[in-house]
Amino acid sequence: MESDDQLTTLKEWTLVAKLAHRHKRMLKLTDSVCRLGNLRSLSNHCKSLSGLSAARRGLIQRKMSENGVTVRRSKVLTIDTMNATVKKVEYAVRGPIVQRAWQIEKELKEGAKKPFTEVIKANIGDAHAMGQQPITFFRQVLALCSYPELLNNNNFPEDAKSRARRILQGCGGKSIGAYSASQGIECIRQDVARYIERRDGGVPCDPDNVYLSTGASDGIVTMLKLLVAGEGRSRTGIMISIPQYPLYSAALAELDAVQVNYYLNEEKCWSLDISELQRSLEAARKHCNPRALCIINPGNPTGQVQSRQCIEDVIRFAAKERLFLMADEVYQDNVYADGCQFHSFKKVLFEMGPEYSDTVELASFHSTSKCYMGECGFRGGYMEVINMDPEVKAQLTKLVSVRLCPPVPGQALMDLVVNPPQPGEPSHGTFMKERNAVLSALAEKAKLTEQILNTVPGITCNPVQGAMYSFPASRCQSAPSRRLRRKGRLLTCCTA
Ligand SMILES: Cc1ncc(COP(=O)(O)O)c(C=O)c1O
Fold first, then answer.
1. How many alpha carbons lie under 13 Å from residue 477 in its C-beta half-sphere?
2. What pLDDT, in 10s, does the model give residues 94-130?
3. Is the pLDDT of residue 13 over 80?
4. What domains, with CATH codes, occur in the chain?
5. Which PANTHER family does the record cross-reference, listed alphabetically (predicted)?
6. Residues 329-348: pLDDT tens digits?
7. Which listed residue, of 152, 215, 237, 310, carries a Cα 20 to 30 Å from 85's Cα?
8. What separation in Å is there between the alpha carbon of 236 and the centre of ligand 1?
9. Which runs of consecutive H residues, i.e. helices, occur in 256-407?
Protein backbone atom coordinates (compact mmCIF):
# COMPACT_ATOMS: atom_id res chain seq x y z
CA MET A 1 0.00 0.00 0.00
CA GLU A 2 1.19 3.49 -0.72
CA SER A 3 1.75 5.86 2.18
CA ASP A 4 -0.22 9.08 2.53
CA ASP A 5 2.90 10.96 1.45
CA GLN A 6 3.36 8.83 -1.61
CA LEU A 7 -0.29 9.24 -2.55
CA THR A 8 -0.16 13.00 -2.29
CA THR A 9 2.98 13.04 -4.39
CA LEU A 10 1.24 10.85 -6.92
CA LYS A 11 -1.69 13.24 -7.02
CA GLU A 12 0.61 16.16 -7.66
CA TRP A 13 2.39 14.32 -10.42
CA THR A 14 -0.92 13.33 -11.91
CA LEU A 15 -1.80 17.01 -11.95
CA VAL A 16 1.49 17.87 -13.64
CA ALA A 17 1.06 15.08 -16.13
CA LYS A 18 -2.48 16.22 -16.94
CA LEU A 19 -1.30 19.76 -17.39
CA ALA A 20 1.56 18.51 -19.48
CA HIS A 21 -0.82 16.54 -21.64
CA ARG A 22 -3.02 19.56 -22.11
CA HIS A 23 -0.22 21.99 -22.71
CA LYS A 24 2.31 19.67 -24.25
CA ARG A 25 3.74 22.37 -26.46
CA MET A 26 4.46 24.62 -23.53
CA LEU A 27 6.06 22.03 -21.33
CA LYS A 28 8.25 20.65 -24.08
CA LEU A 29 9.82 24.10 -24.26
CA THR A 30 12.99 23.11 -22.64
CA ASP A 31 12.34 21.76 -19.25
CA SER A 32 10.55 22.56 -16.08
CA VAL A 33 11.39 22.83 -12.47
CA CYS A 34 9.44 21.53 -9.54
CA ARG A 35 9.45 23.68 -6.48
CA LEU A 36 8.85 22.47 -3.02
CA GLY A 37 7.91 24.86 -0.30
CA ASN A 38 9.81 23.17 2.45
CA LEU A 39 13.06 21.38 1.81
CA ARG A 40 13.29 20.08 5.33
CA SER A 41 10.14 18.03 5.03
CA LEU A 42 11.44 16.84 1.68
CA SER A 43 14.59 15.63 3.32
CA ASN A 44 12.61 13.93 6.06
CA HIS A 45 10.63 12.15 3.40
CA CYS A 46 13.88 11.18 1.74
CA LYS A 47 15.19 9.83 5.02
CA SER A 48 12.03 7.87 5.69
CA LEU A 49 12.16 6.32 2.21
CA SER A 50 15.73 5.20 2.72
CA GLY A 51 15.41 4.70 6.47
CA LEU A 52 14.87 0.96 6.52
CA SER A 53 17.84 0.03 4.45
CA ALA A 54 19.99 2.64 6.20
CA ALA A 55 19.26 1.09 9.60
CA ARG A 56 19.94 -2.33 8.22
CA ARG A 57 23.13 -1.20 6.56
CA GLY A 58 24.57 -0.20 9.94
CA LEU A 59 23.90 -3.65 11.36
CA ILE A 60 24.86 -5.83 8.47
CA GLN A 61 28.03 -7.70 9.08
CA ARG A 62 30.30 -9.02 6.45
CA LYS A 63 31.84 -12.46 6.57
CA MET A 64 35.51 -12.59 5.78
CA SER A 65 37.70 -15.58 5.47
CA GLU A 66 41.21 -15.24 6.82
CA ASN A 67 43.46 -18.30 6.95
CA GLY A 68 40.39 -20.47 6.85
CA VAL A 69 38.85 -18.77 9.91
CA THR A 70 35.62 -16.93 9.30
CA VAL A 71 35.52 -13.58 11.10
CA ARG A 72 32.59 -11.17 11.26
CA ARG A 73 33.31 -7.46 10.97
CA SER A 74 30.94 -4.54 11.21
CA LYS A 75 31.24 -1.87 8.55
CA VAL A 76 33.92 0.76 9.12
CA LEU A 77 31.71 3.32 7.40
CA THR A 78 28.12 3.42 8.61
CA ILE A 79 25.41 6.02 8.59
CA ASP A 80 26.42 6.86 12.17
CA THR A 81 30.16 7.12 11.51
CA MET A 82 30.08 8.88 8.16
CA ASN A 83 30.70 12.60 7.62
CA ALA A 84 27.82 14.34 9.37
CA THR A 85 27.87 17.38 7.08
CA VAL A 86 27.22 15.15 4.05
CA LYS A 87 24.08 13.87 5.77
CA LYS A 88 22.86 17.45 6.13
CA VAL A 89 23.03 18.00 2.36
CA GLU A 90 19.63 18.29 0.66
CA TYR A 91 19.30 18.40 -3.10
CA ALA A 92 15.71 18.64 -4.30
CA VAL A 93 16.76 18.66 -7.96
CA ARG A 94 17.41 14.95 -7.73
CA GLY A 95 15.23 14.25 -4.67
CA PRO A 96 12.25 11.97 -3.90
CA ILE A 97 9.79 13.62 -6.31
CA VAL A 98 12.14 12.90 -9.20
CA GLN A 99 12.56 9.35 -7.96
CA ARG A 100 8.78 9.01 -7.85
CA ALA A 101 8.60 10.36 -11.41
CA TRP A 102 11.08 7.70 -12.56
CA GLN A 103 8.98 5.08 -10.82
CA ILE A 104 5.76 6.28 -12.49
CA GLU A 105 7.55 6.33 -15.84
CA LYS A 106 8.65 2.72 -15.31
CA GLU A 107 5.12 1.72 -14.32
CA LEU A 108 3.77 3.30 -17.52
CA LYS A 109 6.36 1.40 -19.59
CA GLU A 110 5.27 -1.82 -17.90
CA GLY A 111 1.71 -1.14 -19.03
CA ALA A 112 0.18 0.34 -15.86
CA LYS A 113 -3.02 2.27 -16.59
CA LYS A 114 -2.96 5.86 -15.39
CA PRO A 115 -4.99 8.91 -16.34
CA PHE A 116 -1.99 10.11 -18.38
CA THR A 117 0.49 8.53 -20.77
CA GLU A 118 3.66 10.49 -20.25
CA VAL A 119 5.70 12.07 -17.47
CA ILE A 120 7.64 15.20 -18.33
CA LYS A 121 10.34 15.64 -15.74
CA ALA A 122 10.58 19.21 -14.69
CA ASN A 123 13.37 19.07 -12.15
CA ILE A 124 16.45 20.30 -13.95
CA GLY A 125 17.59 22.73 -16.64
CA ASP A 126 18.93 20.14 -19.09
CA ALA A 127 18.12 21.43 -22.58
CA HIS A 128 19.55 18.56 -24.62
CA ALA A 129 17.68 16.02 -22.51
CA MET A 130 14.52 17.85 -23.60
CA GLY A 131 15.39 17.62 -27.27
CA GLN A 132 17.45 20.77 -27.97
CA GLN A 133 19.96 20.06 -30.73
CA PRO A 134 23.68 20.83 -30.31
CA ILE A 135 25.32 23.65 -32.25
CA THR A 136 26.93 22.03 -35.31
CA PHE A 137 30.20 23.98 -35.19
CA PHE A 138 30.80 23.05 -31.55
CA ARG A 139 30.35 19.36 -32.20
CA GLN A 140 32.46 19.48 -35.37
CA VAL A 141 35.41 20.99 -33.51
CA LEU A 142 34.98 18.60 -30.60
CA ALA A 143 34.85 15.64 -33.01
CA LEU A 144 38.06 16.87 -34.66
CA CYS A 145 39.74 17.31 -31.28
CA SER A 146 38.67 13.85 -30.16
CA TYR A 147 39.70 12.09 -33.37
CA PRO A 148 42.33 14.20 -35.17
CA GLU A 149 42.32 11.80 -38.14
CA LEU A 150 39.19 13.69 -39.16
CA LEU A 151 41.36 16.73 -39.90
CA ASN A 152 42.00 14.99 -43.25
CA ASN A 153 38.29 14.68 -43.96
CA ASN A 154 36.93 17.15 -46.53
CA ASN A 155 33.46 17.23 -44.94
CA PHE A 156 34.61 19.45 -42.10
CA PRO A 157 34.79 23.22 -42.69
CA GLU A 158 38.20 24.87 -42.57
CA ASP A 159 37.37 27.15 -39.65
CA ALA A 160 36.38 24.12 -37.53
CA LYS A 161 39.68 22.46 -38.46
CA SER A 162 41.81 25.48 -37.63
CA ARG A 163 40.00 25.89 -34.30
CA ALA A 164 40.62 22.21 -33.49
CA ARG A 165 44.31 22.49 -34.45
CA ARG A 166 44.71 25.50 -32.15
CA ILE A 167 43.09 23.72 -29.21
CA LEU A 168 45.15 20.57 -29.80
CA GLN A 169 48.27 22.70 -29.97
CA GLY A 170 47.48 23.86 -26.41
CA CYS A 171 47.12 20.27 -25.14
CA GLY A 172 49.92 18.08 -23.81
CA GLY A 173 51.03 15.73 -26.59
CA LYS A 174 48.44 17.50 -28.81
CA SER A 175 45.76 15.28 -27.28
CA ILE A 176 42.64 16.22 -25.34
CA GLY A 177 43.33 13.04 -23.41
CA ALA A 178 46.21 14.73 -21.58
CA TYR A 179 45.87 16.58 -18.27
CA SER A 180 45.99 20.34 -18.71
CA ALA A 181 47.29 23.07 -16.43
CA SER A 182 45.06 23.12 -13.33
CA GLN A 183 43.82 26.62 -14.02
CA GLY A 184 42.96 25.55 -17.57
CA ILE A 185 44.66 25.58 -20.97
CA GLU A 186 46.40 28.91 -21.39
CA CYS A 187 45.19 29.83 -24.88
CA ILE A 188 41.60 29.09 -23.75
CA ARG A 189 41.97 31.35 -20.72
CA GLN A 190 43.22 34.03 -23.08
CA ASP A 191 40.15 33.55 -25.28
CA VAL A 192 37.90 33.77 -22.20
CA ALA A 193 39.62 37.03 -21.21
CA ARG A 194 39.08 38.52 -24.69
CA TYR A 195 35.41 37.42 -24.57
CA ILE A 196 34.89 39.11 -21.21
CA GLU A 197 36.50 42.31 -22.55
CA ARG A 198 34.20 42.31 -25.62
CA ARG A 199 31.16 41.56 -23.48
CA ASP A 200 32.00 44.32 -21.00
CA GLY A 201 32.70 47.06 -23.55
CA GLY A 202 36.48 46.94 -23.20
CA VAL A 203 36.89 46.61 -19.41
CA PRO A 204 40.26 44.80 -19.21
CA CYS A 205 40.44 41.16 -18.16
CA ASP A 206 43.67 39.46 -17.13
CA PRO A 207 43.75 35.77 -18.25
CA ASP A 208 45.57 35.10 -15.01
CA ASN A 209 42.32 35.91 -13.15
CA VAL A 210 40.42 33.30 -15.17
CA TYR A 211 40.05 29.75 -13.86
CA LEU A 212 38.44 27.15 -16.11
CA SER A 213 36.18 24.86 -14.11
CA THR A 214 34.13 21.67 -14.23
CA GLY A 215 30.89 23.50 -14.97
CA ALA A 216 30.02 26.59 -12.98
CA SER A 217 29.12 24.41 -9.97
CA ASP A 218 32.76 23.51 -9.42
CA GLY A 219 33.88 27.16 -9.48
CA ILE A 220 31.11 28.15 -7.06
CA VAL A 221 31.93 25.38 -4.58
CA THR A 222 35.66 26.15 -4.82
CA MET A 223 35.02 29.81 -3.97
CA LEU A 224 32.78 28.85 -1.07
CA LYS A 225 35.55 26.58 0.26
CA LEU A 226 37.91 29.55 0.36
CA LEU A 227 35.36 31.70 2.16
CA VAL A 228 34.17 29.40 4.93
CA ALA A 229 36.03 29.67 8.24
CA GLY A 230 35.53 30.28 11.95
CA GLU A 231 33.57 28.64 14.72
CA GLY A 232 30.36 29.42 16.58
CA ARG A 233 29.29 33.03 16.18
CA SER A 234 32.26 33.75 13.96
CA ARG A 235 31.39 30.94 11.52
CA THR A 236 31.10 32.25 7.96
CA GLY A 237 27.60 33.12 6.78
CA ILE A 238 26.86 33.17 3.06
CA MET A 239 23.91 35.21 1.81
CA ILE A 240 21.83 33.45 -0.84
CA SER A 241 18.60 34.39 -2.58
CA ILE A 242 15.35 32.63 -1.78
CA PRO A 243 13.79 31.07 -3.82
CA GLN A 244 17.16 29.52 -4.38
CA TYR A 245 19.10 27.23 -6.67
CA PRO A 246 19.85 24.25 -4.40
CA LEU A 247 23.53 23.96 -5.30
CA TYR A 248 24.08 26.78 -2.82
CA SER A 249 22.25 25.31 0.17
CA ALA A 250 23.75 21.88 -0.53
CA ALA A 251 27.31 23.23 -0.74
CA LEU A 252 26.86 25.34 2.38
CA ALA A 253 25.54 22.34 4.33
CA GLU A 254 28.50 20.25 3.19
CA LEU A 255 30.93 22.96 4.21
CA ASP A 256 29.09 23.48 7.48
CA ALA A 257 28.70 27.16 6.70
CA VAL A 258 25.74 29.28 7.79
CA GLN A 259 23.13 29.81 5.10
CA VAL A 260 21.84 33.37 5.29
CA ASN A 261 18.60 33.77 3.37
CA TYR A 262 17.46 36.94 1.68
CA TYR A 263 14.09 36.93 -0.03
CA LEU A 264 13.42 38.14 -3.55
CA ASN A 265 10.32 40.28 -3.99
CA GLU A 266 7.65 38.35 -5.88
CA GLU A 267 5.35 41.38 -5.98
CA LYS A 268 8.03 43.28 -7.91
CA CYS A 269 8.81 40.52 -10.39
CA TRP A 270 11.34 38.84 -8.09
CA SER A 271 13.49 41.93 -7.80
CA LEU A 272 16.14 42.32 -5.14
CA ASP A 273 15.52 44.97 -2.46
CA ILE A 274 18.50 46.45 -0.66
CA SER A 275 16.32 46.85 2.45
CA GLU A 276 15.82 43.06 2.46
CA LEU A 277 19.57 42.50 2.11
CA GLN A 278 20.10 44.82 5.08
CA ARG A 279 17.44 43.04 7.16
CA SER A 280 18.90 39.63 6.39
CA LEU A 281 22.48 40.76 7.10
CA GLU A 282 21.63 42.34 10.43
CA ALA A 283 19.67 39.29 11.57
CA ALA A 284 22.56 37.01 10.55
CA ARG A 285 25.20 39.08 12.33
CA LYS A 286 23.59 38.09 15.64
CA HIS A 287 24.68 34.47 15.16
CA CYS A 288 27.37 34.27 12.47
CA ASN A 289 29.85 36.24 10.40
CA PRO A 290 28.32 36.97 6.97
CA ARG A 291 31.17 37.36 4.50
CA ALA A 292 29.77 36.78 1.04
CA LEU A 293 26.72 37.68 -1.00
CA CYS A 294 25.65 35.38 -3.86
CA ILE A 295 23.53 36.73 -6.69
CA ILE A 296 22.11 34.71 -9.57
CA ASN A 297 21.42 36.94 -12.56
CA PRO A 298 19.38 36.12 -14.67
CA GLY A 299 17.72 34.24 -11.86
CA ASN A 300 17.14 30.55 -11.30
CA PRO A 301 14.42 29.61 -10.40
CA THR A 302 12.67 32.96 -10.55
CA GLY A 303 13.56 34.09 -14.09
CA GLN A 304 14.19 37.76 -13.26
CA VAL A 305 16.85 39.94 -14.88
CA GLN A 306 18.37 42.47 -12.49
CA SER A 307 18.39 46.10 -13.63
CA ARG A 308 21.66 47.98 -13.91
CA GLN A 309 20.55 50.18 -11.01
CA CYS A 310 19.92 47.15 -8.84
CA ILE A 311 23.38 45.75 -9.58
CA GLU A 312 24.96 49.09 -8.73
CA ASP A 313 23.04 49.18 -5.44
CA VAL A 314 24.16 45.64 -4.62
CA ILE A 315 27.80 46.54 -5.29
CA ARG A 316 27.50 49.61 -3.06
CA PHE A 317 25.93 47.44 -0.35
CA ALA A 318 28.71 44.85 -0.63
CA ALA A 319 31.34 47.58 -0.39
CA LYS A 320 29.70 49.19 2.64
CA GLU A 321 29.18 45.91 4.46
CA ARG A 322 32.52 44.38 3.44
CA LEU A 323 31.06 41.39 1.62
CA PHE A 324 32.71 39.25 -1.05
CA LEU A 325 30.45 39.18 -4.14
CA MET A 326 29.70 35.97 -6.04
CA ALA A 327 27.89 36.63 -9.33
CA ASP A 328 26.39 33.52 -10.89
CA GLU A 329 25.90 34.62 -14.50
CA VAL A 330 25.40 31.28 -16.24
CA TYR A 331 22.26 32.57 -18.00
CA GLN A 332 23.92 35.66 -19.45
CA ASP A 333 22.55 35.06 -22.97
CA ASN A 334 19.08 34.07 -21.76
CA VAL A 335 17.28 37.41 -21.65
CA TYR A 336 13.87 37.60 -23.31
CA ALA A 337 11.70 40.40 -21.94
CA ASP A 338 11.47 43.76 -23.67
CA GLY A 339 13.39 46.42 -21.78
CA CYS A 340 15.56 43.86 -19.97
CA GLN A 341 19.27 43.53 -20.63
CA PHE A 342 22.07 41.51 -19.09
CA HIS A 343 24.65 43.63 -17.23
CA SER A 344 27.63 41.79 -15.85
CA PHE A 345 28.64 42.62 -12.28
CA LYS A 346 32.20 43.12 -13.51
CA LYS A 347 31.18 45.78 -16.05
CA VAL A 348 28.98 47.67 -13.62
CA LEU A 349 31.71 47.46 -10.96
CA PHE A 350 34.25 49.05 -13.30
CA GLU A 351 31.81 51.71 -14.48
CA MET A 352 31.34 52.77 -10.85
CA GLY A 353 34.94 53.98 -10.71
CA PRO A 354 38.08 53.10 -8.73
CA GLU A 355 36.45 53.52 -5.33
CA TYR A 356 34.64 50.27 -6.13
CA SER A 357 36.57 48.69 -8.99
CA ASP A 358 39.82 48.75 -7.00
CA THR A 359 38.35 47.33 -3.82
CA VAL A 360 35.22 45.19 -4.13
CA GLU A 361 36.13 41.50 -4.31
CA LEU A 362 34.16 39.63 -6.94
CA ALA A 363 34.04 36.16 -8.43
CA SER A 364 31.79 35.68 -11.45
CA PHE A 365 30.82 32.38 -13.05
CA HIS A 366 29.84 31.18 -16.50
CA SER A 367 29.10 27.77 -18.00
CA THR A 368 28.67 25.80 -21.21
CA SER A 369 25.49 24.27 -19.73
CA LYS A 370 23.01 27.10 -20.30
CA CYS A 371 22.34 29.99 -22.75
CA TYR A 372 21.94 28.65 -26.32
CA MET A 373 24.51 25.86 -25.81
CA GLY A 374 22.82 23.62 -23.24
CA GLU A 375 25.92 21.41 -23.25
CA CYS A 376 25.57 20.35 -19.59
CA GLY A 377 27.31 16.99 -20.00
CA PHE A 378 30.63 18.47 -21.10
CA ARG A 379 31.02 20.16 -17.71
CA GLY A 380 32.65 23.31 -19.06
CA GLY A 381 32.81 26.58 -17.16
CA TYR A 382 35.00 29.38 -15.93
CA MET A 383 35.26 31.86 -13.10
CA GLU A 384 36.92 35.24 -13.07
CA VAL A 385 38.21 36.67 -9.81
CA ILE A 386 38.63 40.40 -9.26
CA ASN A 387 40.51 42.16 -6.45
CA MET A 388 41.40 38.87 -4.81
CA ASP A 389 44.17 39.05 -2.24
CA PRO A 390 47.29 37.63 -4.00
CA GLU A 391 47.97 35.21 -1.14
CA VAL A 392 44.40 33.91 -1.31
CA LYS A 393 44.74 33.63 -5.08
CA ALA A 394 47.81 31.46 -4.59
CA GLN A 395 45.74 29.26 -2.26
CA LEU A 396 42.99 29.11 -4.88
CA THR A 397 45.49 27.99 -7.51
CA LYS A 398 46.79 25.36 -5.10
CA LEU A 399 43.27 24.18 -4.30
CA VAL A 400 42.28 23.69 -7.95
CA SER A 401 45.54 21.90 -8.63
CA VAL A 402 44.63 19.17 -6.14
CA ARG A 403 42.01 17.98 -8.61
CA LEU A 404 44.51 18.21 -11.48
CA CYS A 405 42.33 19.91 -14.10
CA PRO A 406 38.78 20.39 -15.39
CA PRO A 407 37.78 18.00 -18.20
CA VAL A 408 39.70 19.04 -21.32
CA PRO A 409 36.75 18.48 -23.73
CA GLY A 410 34.75 20.84 -21.49
CA GLN A 411 37.56 23.39 -21.68
CA ALA A 412 37.61 23.05 -25.49
CA LEU A 413 33.86 23.66 -25.60
CA MET A 414 34.19 26.71 -23.36
CA ASP A 415 36.74 28.00 -25.85
CA LEU A 416 34.25 27.69 -28.70
CA VAL A 417 31.55 29.47 -26.69
CA VAL A 418 33.82 32.45 -26.04
CA ASN A 419 35.35 32.33 -29.51
CA PRO A 420 32.61 31.29 -31.95
CA PRO A 421 32.85 31.53 -35.77
CA GLN A 422 33.41 35.11 -36.91
CA PRO A 423 31.76 36.94 -39.85
CA GLY A 424 33.47 35.84 -43.06
CA GLU A 425 34.36 32.38 -41.72
CA PRO A 426 32.63 29.42 -43.42
CA SER A 427 30.66 28.34 -40.32
CA HIS A 428 29.46 31.80 -39.27
CA GLY A 429 26.11 31.71 -41.11
CA THR A 430 25.02 28.30 -39.79
CA PHE A 431 26.27 29.10 -36.30
CA MET A 432 24.24 32.32 -36.10
CA LYS A 433 21.15 30.63 -37.52
CA GLU A 434 21.30 27.80 -34.99
CA ARG A 435 22.12 30.09 -32.06
CA ASN A 436 19.32 32.53 -32.86
CA ALA A 437 16.82 29.71 -33.41
CA VAL A 438 17.47 28.32 -29.92
CA LEU A 439 17.30 31.72 -28.25
CA SER A 440 14.11 32.77 -30.02
CA ALA A 441 12.47 29.42 -29.25
CA LEU A 442 13.36 29.92 -25.59
CA ALA A 443 11.94 33.45 -25.67
CA GLU A 444 8.70 32.20 -27.20
CA LYS A 445 8.45 29.41 -24.65
CA ALA A 446 9.11 31.81 -21.79
CA LYS A 447 6.11 33.89 -22.91
CA LEU A 448 3.95 30.84 -23.49
CA THR A 449 4.81 29.39 -20.07
CA GLU A 450 3.81 32.59 -18.33
CA GLN A 451 0.60 32.92 -20.32
CA ILE A 452 -0.53 29.33 -19.86
CA LEU A 453 0.30 29.17 -16.16
CA ASN A 454 -1.73 32.33 -15.64
CA THR A 455 -4.77 30.64 -17.19
CA VAL A 456 -4.75 27.93 -14.50
CA PRO A 457 -7.17 28.80 -11.67
CA GLY A 458 -5.28 29.46 -8.43
CA ILE A 459 -1.91 29.88 -10.14
CA THR A 460 -0.20 33.18 -10.88
CA CYS A 461 3.11 33.61 -12.60
CA ASN A 462 5.44 36.55 -13.05
CA PRO A 463 6.83 37.29 -16.52
CA VAL A 464 9.84 35.12 -17.33
CA GLN A 465 12.38 37.85 -18.11
CA GLY A 466 15.34 35.52 -18.51
CA ALA A 467 17.07 32.22 -17.61
CA MET A 468 15.01 29.07 -18.24
CA TYR A 469 12.46 28.90 -15.44
CA SER A 470 9.30 30.38 -14.04
CA PHE A 471 8.26 30.25 -10.44
CA PRO A 472 4.49 30.51 -10.23
CA ALA A 473 2.59 30.89 -7.00
CA SER A 474 -0.12 28.36 -6.24
CA ARG A 475 -3.08 29.49 -4.20
CA CYS A 476 -5.21 26.44 -5.00
CA GLN A 477 -7.74 25.87 -2.24
CA SER A 478 -8.53 22.24 -3.02
CA ALA A 479 -8.28 19.81 -0.10
CA PRO A 480 -5.22 17.95 -1.51
CA SER A 481 -3.48 21.29 -2.16
CA ARG A 482 -4.18 22.47 1.36
CA ARG A 483 -2.88 19.20 2.77
CA LEU A 484 0.28 19.41 0.69
CA ARG A 485 0.81 23.01 1.69
CA ARG A 486 0.52 22.02 5.35
CA LYS A 487 3.12 19.33 4.74
CA GLY A 488 5.27 21.91 2.97
CA ARG A 489 5.25 19.74 -0.12
CA LEU A 490 3.02 21.62 -2.54
CA LEU A 491 4.38 21.67 -6.01
CA THR A 492 4.37 25.35 -6.77
CA CYS A 493 6.13 25.57 -10.05
CA CYS A 494 7.08 24.30 -13.39
CA THR A 495 8.52 26.10 -16.36
CA ALA A 496 10.23 27.05 -19.54
C1 LIG B 1 22.12 29.41 -11.36
C2 LIG B 1 22.92 28.21 -11.69
N3 LIG B 1 24.21 28.16 -11.35
C4 LIG B 1 24.97 27.10 -11.62
C5 LIG B 1 24.45 26.02 -12.29
C6 LIG B 1 25.33 24.83 -12.55
O7 LIG B 1 25.79 24.85 -13.84
P8 LIG B 1 26.90 23.85 -14.37
O9 LIG B 1 26.19 22.80 -15.15
O10 LIG B 1 27.78 24.71 -15.21
O11 LIG B 1 27.62 23.31 -13.20
C12 LIG B 1 23.11 26.02 -12.67
C13 LIG B 1 22.52 24.85 -13.33
O14 LIG B 1 21.34 24.74 -13.53
C15 LIG B 1 22.33 27.15 -12.37
O16 LIG B 1 21.04 27.21 -12.71
1. 1
2. 677 888 888 999 999 999 999 999 888 777 788 998 8
3. no
4. 129-496 (3.40.640.10)
5. ALANINE AMINOTRANSFERASE, ALANINE AMINOTRANSFERASE 1
6. 999 999 998 899 999 999 99
7. 215
8. 23
9. 274-285, 308-321, 345-351, 354-357, 390-402
